[in-house]
Write a structure and sequence with these properties.
1 helix; mainly beta; Porin; 16-stranded antiparallel β-barrel; about 0% helix; single chain
């Protein structure tokens, strides 16, 4: 990869579609739908990064970071089918989404070197269970023609439209949420994007509401680290500011400011 990508929160979640050659502004057809337009992220390591969110209706077509990072999404109907991650105009990664009905069942990620050759291929398979949980199996190879090796497997558990637990690399993670609106809840296909924690921000969890606590455990079950989130909200119940602090960690406190259309 030409640059190690940290899709920092939404690191997170996560774009210009195939129809983006038309630079004319696209208005939201439902003016009552609240959509995130800008986020300002601040921490003591990376400084301040501003991200602009562009839409076709309620389909998120691009996330444009002021450090040269761009994430582009392409859709088939209301389903996202491809993402392209570019840095300073050069392709770093590409993701392909495959569905069975409305359920995401396969995600394939291709990482490119400076010669635009694939140097890593990751395949994530999702099995949707009758109780609403999702089993995930993650495979990896040097490219899509090489034999795949199972790297990890886990389980995604949801409650009230929110991701509440996820196990990765034998490290269980859990989230609790407020009862307010997530800045991303009205984005088309977000229910599929949110089960890829590295798109927006692994710590942001995913769902209709906003995380209050994120806890990561050792494989033994003891707590590894814990993050708390605090917010201010607008009159519609969407966050205006977010501060998240890592307990007992040298990682500094980070913050977001959110701006909506």
């Amino acid at each position: 990869m030409k640059k190690v990508l940290t899709l920092a929160a939404i690191a997170l979640f996560t774009m210009t579609s195939c129809s983006s050659d038309d630079d004319s502004p696209v208005t939201n057809p439902d003016e009552n739908v609240v959509l995130l337009k800008k986020r300002i992220s601040t921490d003591d390591i990376e400084g301040t990064i501003t991200t602009l969110f562009n839409y076709d209706g309620n389909k998120l077509t691009s996330m444009v970071y002021d450090d040269g990072l761009i994430i582009e999404f392409t859709y088939d109907g209301d389903k996202v089918v491809e993402e392209r991650i570019l840095y300073n105009g050069e392709l770093d990664e590409k993701g392909i989404y495959t569905y069975s009905g409305d359920n995401l069942v396969l995600y394939e990620r291709y990482s490119y070197d400076i010669n635009d050759e694939v140097y890593e291929y990751v395949k994530k398979e999702y099995e949707h269970n009758s109780n609403g949980t999702i089993d995930i199996s993650i495979y990896q190879a040097e490219n899509e023609t090489e034999p795949l090796t199972l790297q990890d497997s886990g389980l995604l558990t949801f409650e009230n439209g929110n991701l509440i637990s996820y196990t990765e690399c034998n490290q269980p993670q859990s989230w609790t949420y407020d009862d307010k609106n997530s800045p991303f809840k009205n984005i088309a296909s977000f229910n599929n994007i949110m089960i890829l924690p590295d798109i927006f921000d692994s710590g942001d969890g995913g769902g209709q509401n906003n995380p209050l606590n994120w806890t990561v455990y050792h494989s033994s079950g003891t707590e590894n680290f814990h993050t708390t989130y605090t917010y201010t909200y607008n009159s519609d119940g969407y966050p205006l500011t977010e501060i998240f602090a890592y307990d007992d960690s040298p990682i500094p406190t980070n913050s977001h400011q959110y701006f909506y259309e």
